[in-house]
Amino acid sequence: MKLMLKRLCAERPRDWDKYLGPALFAYREVPQESVLFSPFELVYGWPVRGPMTILKELWTREITDPEVRSTYEYVINLRERLESTCELVKQNLEKASRKQSRIYNRKSRSRKIKVGQKVLVLLPTKANKLLMHWKGPFSIVEKISDLDYRIDMRGKLKMFHVNMLKLYVEREQTNVCVSAPDHKVGFVATVSVIDLENEDTDDVDNYESELIETPVAVAKETLRDVHINEALKANETVKVQCLLDKFSHVLTDIPGRTNVLQHDIKLTSDDPVRFKPYPIPYAMLDTVNKEVDKMIEMDIIERSDSPYSSPFVIVKKKDQSNRFCIDFRGLNSITIFDAETMGNIEEMFSKLSGYQFISKIDLTKGYWQISLVDAAKPKTAFPNT
Prior knowledge:
By secondary structure, this protein is an alpha+beta fold. Helices cover about 30% and strands about 15% of the residues.
């Protein structure tokens, strides 16, 4: 019955109560698995002619003629039919009970709860009576039998079956005191810091896709990091080194700037996007100021009085170093999506058949190498400390 009500509420959420009558009729018409008779037949002595029975009679033309009997004969036959039905129901219930008990005992185990122990009780929720969850803990007051216990539920004594109970185990209270006289005492502050090592991987990937990392100002990678194949001849190695020296200005992790194109940000609304800055601890203000000064020196950003404002955060990487990032999720939510499709990499590789050499170029922070048009610059503003 509960499964029927759940299905009814899911399929007809607005008017499920109007279908309770037909649902009850269908439930009482179907034979029960244990007794092999329908509730209608057990009460009235004959199977009810429901919609499916009438449809079957119309299709098969198995319509029996009504019998002409006296009232006395009808009552006697009905009584005999009910008695024989009850006898069959009793036998079927005994068989079904033995079968169900055998199946249940395969995985069941004996559980004993002592008086005074605390338990959780499986009860329906207040919002949904068909949804059960564990509530408690409550104390065991009395053991009525091996399967039934009386529980004190905030002053009211109620009896529950053992299957509705689960032993509640309290956590051990441990007091750990660590003394470190040789260490300096720091301070505690509310920090808007993201720890990538402890965050859930999927959430971090989704969150980081909206964060814009600032570029590096000091080169950590140069042409000296290029690996030259040792199988090359001496003159070939010299040619490769000369080629690397010629383009040494691009073989670095410091982003350059292209003059081929500029990027424009088109929005669905002209209302400026403003978000309150995230709280930054005093100890990290120097890090933030250094990052801002570095980007101004590299001519990546400029001071602005824009009405837009996207907050920035400090992301703590796995090596415990800090990373200054800008959270553009608010701006991205009103940005017009560019529907141009990206190329299929399999199709690109199929066009390279027959070529002897395939080169792969990894651009350093291409986001910072493309400048913005003048109209789009105010939209990327962030607050300074």
